[in-house]
Input
Amino acid sequence: MKDATAFRPVGALRVSAVGPRRLRLVSIRETIELSAVAEDLFRLRMVRGRKFSERPSWAVVRDDWPMAPPRVETGKETVAIETGAGRLEFHLRDGRWVLRDAQGAERTTGLAKRLGFAGDAARVALALTETEGIFGLGETTGPINKRGLRRELWNIDVLGHSPGIHPGLHSLYVAIPFALLLRDGRTTGIFWDNPARQTWDLGQAAPDALGVTADSGEIDLYLFVGSSVAEIVDRYTELTGRMPLPPRWALGYHQCRYSYETAARVREIAGNFRRREIPCDAIYLDIHHMDEYRVFTFGKTFPRPAKLLADLDEQGFKVVAIVDPGVKDDPNFGVLRRGRARRAFVKDATGRRDYVGRVWPGESRFPDFTNAQARAWWGEEQARLQQLGVAGFWNDMNEPANFALPSKTLPPDCRHDSDAGPLSHAVAHNVYGMQMARASREGALAHEPGVRPFVISRAGYAGVQRYALIWTGDNSSVWEHLADSLQMLLNLGLSGVAFCGADVGGFLENTNAELLVRWLQMAAFTPFFRNHTNLDTINQEPWAFGPPVEAICRRYIELRYQLLPYLYCLFAESHRTGAAIMRPLFWHHADDPLAVATGDQFLLGANLLVAPILQPGNGARAVYLPRGEWFDFWSGEAHTGGRYILAPAPLDRLPLYVRAGAIIPMGAVRQHTGESKDEVINLHLWPNGKTELAWHEDDGVTIDLATGGYSTRTIRFATVGRGARLDFGAAQGSFVSEVKRWRVILRCATRPYRVTVNGGQIPARFVAETGVFSFEIQNAVSPIVARLA
Ligand code: MIG
Output
């Protein structure tokens, strides 16, 4: 007898059907379908038998694009589909396949006899060239380039993740089977849409092969052949959805700890921020706010939650409450009773009884978030928190975590009654967290229509960006984790999750002054900026280490608030195109091997280069500046890129550089994003030939974008002869801009200019010592032209 679990590569194939965009191939056992989904996106599916699953995908929200009809070729040995952007060839005899771009260059190759099934498992293997890099894969530990590692995509609750501390740690909380392959400056994307546990051997077992196994399900590969990293992430996020614009307060500084245990302590924390004038927008309630960990309740240490939340609101604080999935198995608990009445919980293997596991509340049942009715019910329960004034939801433990079993999650044979039909937990596991986030977001919207929800999730699968931001879970207050979190966030951004962040200061263990400062300096430039620490650790609020440290923390939090207009434009760009907000250098410099190798610096948007200090006692660090001209943000000193420089970094200084040609819009320091001030935007122009900024503004609260509730305009700057020209295109959209005046700040100026705005001369100022030339322009919706002569 043959071993049923042995690997069997796909047998010899023949063409069974040819459609306008697709080709169907059959062997004795398997069926393959090749198709062009978009010009630059191909799909390769394979099943045993003759029928593809008709289950809708949890990840994919769009799967066909208008395109010129591709050429479909059926030769004797090979078949192919060719579009204007690429070509997918398939060899009928041995299952080898090749993806090429429009220039005919081989982007990636599926190895012969390595496509097939082994028992329930499905396998794919790709050839790797010697220098090929592998990026993305969502949230995983280790260096930015995953080449040579092995990672499992199986959402799991782990304490203290780190390659150094847990060398064997292969899984984290998020599973995103999407990778970017970087080969000789060209980027190719590969996404295997299958939420079952996947194992990615990234050139470890064999240095020249990328081998991927899914524990069950179909082979369903999406192959992206775009011409840049940005294009591939753009297409990938068109496929799996994009981040909705968060409320503006989500971009501010957030303060958390496990836990602020009483209402009085929360008020004290809030009072400290305002008294010390440290900007802050949100305070989090961790699990101790509940009545014995009963979800959606407040316990006796929070006697009048509505009053507390109203008072905090008056001080400009939003409150985010933790919401864990486990519902306490207490027959007197209303949430449990209603959930049971709605048949909303995950069933055990019998399919008849609810599975009962154990989490913080003790014995608990787990809502079946894969089911639309269960999600709607959850939203109703959550609405009670909204009515009390809770502004956001923090979905923790949604891998889901379970203390009852060594596997730390639900048994694989638990039953889900999903929108896509009945599923075992083994298949639903990786989507559980994202579907919880979906319940939270959709519930928040249903019960407060028109207001942008705020949902933060620990677990997720491809497409989770549609519902929540991701924070990277329980790191430790150690330097290695600061460095690790940076690379993790970069890969999350490459994987469609632009809105992400790590616990600032580190979660487990006690932090220290230097680590807090360095972490906070870096995180001021990450999309999500939240300080959080564990139960029983020392305090790590910005003032916890005395006045000098507090002053540095304040300074960087203030800088974050000053940069919010720049950041907000980046969030808008990401909402439109899926672009990462925090980017590896190679996002803009894929053909530069040194930029590709850099995992300890990042770009915020295209124009700010952040080189955080990732080790203790460092008064300086090497910084790689990619090709082009760069300016030191602090001193204005100019540097030519394409080389390393040594950057001074005393404790109060984060090495920060601006790309020549950048327009960086900066606002006033505010104590929170809702604080109203006469809006003057400082437009810092860092000179170089020609540049532009896509300005975006809206009310920061409502979801009015679809109906034009924004104000956008292109701001262009170009040197003309010895002078320059600054153009504000006409403002688009129905939102009335809050900008009263633009203060134009030309940096590195060597002389004063004569300035005319729409023809009339206006006053200007030149300070020779600082090289700053500045003037102010009244804002107007119509085009504005300023000339510098
Ligand atoms: O088992 O709610 O990652 O941020 O503070 C620990 C308590 C449960 C894990 C989260 C952490 C949170 C903590 N939670």
